[in-house]
Every structure is written in C-alpha cells, then in structure tokens.
Design brief:
By secondary structure, this protein is mainly α. It has 6 helices and no strands.
C-alpha cells in the first residue's frame, strides 16, 4: 500500500517511531460508508423484529432457531440480563482474634508495669574533675569580640 498523503501512517514509520504526539491514526474519522450502512440497517429494524417474531411463533421452525429469535427479541427489548456471580468467602478469623487478644494483653501489661530506669554507674572523681574544669573556664574572661575591620579608603 502506498501512503502518499499521510506519511505518518506508513507502517514502517509507525514501527520506527510510533505515533507522534498530537496525531491520530485516523484523522478523518470513520468513513461515511459505514454510517450509511448503519442508517440503512436502522431503517430495517421493524422488518427484522417482525422476522424474529415470525420465526419465534412458527411451529414448523427448528426449536433452537425459535429460542434464539425469542432471546434476541428479549435482549433488544429489555436489555441483556445482569449476570450474577456466586462467591463463597470463607475466612477463619480465630487466628486474627487470638493475635488481637495477645496484643491487647501485652499493652495492658506494659501500662501496668513500673517504669524501668536504666543507668550506668560512673566514678565520682570524673564528675568532680568536670566540675573543676567548668569552674576554671567560668573564671576566665571571655575573649573580646571584635567587629568588622575598619574600611580602608584609598588616599586621594
């Protein structure tokens, strides 16, 4: 096939780079022929329904054809029936309930237990040395804070 007017529709080009952003594969939409066929089919709706009714009511017609005609009429008149799905859900929640009970019991035990203070024994001499160093640094005057150096202006 030759794609003269629509080079972006060429199969090789589509495989190489895919569709470009903002472009559609069928920019003109459906062909008018399909719309015309749909319009003609819609005009024949009454005849088609009458044919289905005739097939459904004719006792000489095959039984399966009569059933298919009846189903087609019902589907078009009332819509297809909703499908139901039977689901059996079988959960054993006993394990979950036991785990929840254990968690609640643990929370109650933690709430009732006296607080535990963890500490480490330290040597008193270390504390005294730290106090002495702190006292010595407190006695020393703090270094004076200097401001910005004065601006040097060039002499004229």
């Amino acid at each position: 096939m030759v794609y003269k007017n629509n080079k972006h529709l060429e199969p090789e080009a589509c495989r190489k780079r895919g569709f470009q952003k903002g472009q559609v594969s069928n920019p003109k939409g459906r062909t008018p022929i399909i719309r015309e066929v749909q319009a003609l089919a819609k005009e024949q709706t009454e005849l088609a329904v009458n044919t289905l009714v005739e097939i459904m009511t004719n006792e000489k017609t095959n039984g399966s054809a009569r059933v298919q005609a009846a189903v087609a009429l019902l589907d078009r008149g009332w819509g297809r029936p909703k499908q139901s799905v039977d689901i059996k859900v079988d959960h054993d929640a006993s394990g979950l309930a036991a785990a929840l009970d254990a968690l609640q019991a643990r929370e109650r035990a933690v709430a009732l237990a006296p607080p535990v203070i963890e500490a480490e024994v330290i040597d008193v001499t270390v504390v005294e040395t730290v106090k002495e160093i702190t006292a010595e640094t407190a006695e020393q005057p703090a270094p004076k804070r200097r401001g910005r150096p004065p601006k040097v202006t060039p002499e004229s």
